[in-house]
TrEMBL record:
It comes from the Bacteria. It holds the Pfam family DoxX. Keywords: Cell membrane, Membrane, Transmembrane, Transmembrane helix. It is found in: Cell membrane. Belongs to the DoxX family. The keyword DNA repair does not apply. The chain crosses the membrane at residues 12-35, 55-76, 83-102, 108-129. Its main location: membrane. It is a multi-pass membrane protein. InterPro entries: DoxX, DoxX-like_oxidoreductase. The keyword Protein biosynthesis does not apply. PANTHER family: INNER MEMBRANE PROTEIN YPHA-RELATED, OXIDOREDUCTASE CATD-RELATED. This is DoxX family protein.
Amino acid sequence: MKRLLSTACSETSFNIAVLVIRVTFGSMLLINHGIDKLKHFAEKQNSFPDPLHMGHMPSLMLALFAEVFCTVFIVLGLFTRIMAIPVVITFAVIVFLVNKGYAGNAEMGVLFLAGFFSILLMGPGKYSIDGAMGK
């Protein structure tokens, strides 16, 4: 009981928590959003949101990079902090530019933004490829 009320955090519990957050957020983003964008690439390439006025195709390509390529690296724990940066930027754009004024749509974006920003701050943890390499 004393341990449940403690504010102290052991190194092992921190590393397990980081692993769970990395795998959960990364897998959910990859499976529910990234793979869907890959499957329906041809349909989305001319209608994908373009909040930065770069064009529909470049916006889709940047989202795919963040949601597929970067999340695979995050789940594995390889170059975790570097790979979290494009994902955080993607979700900041989604929350603040794409979904502005639509509170119902922004909820999922805010959750992903908070999760990946936490990963950016915490790093990969011990149970990762980066941790195994001693980075």
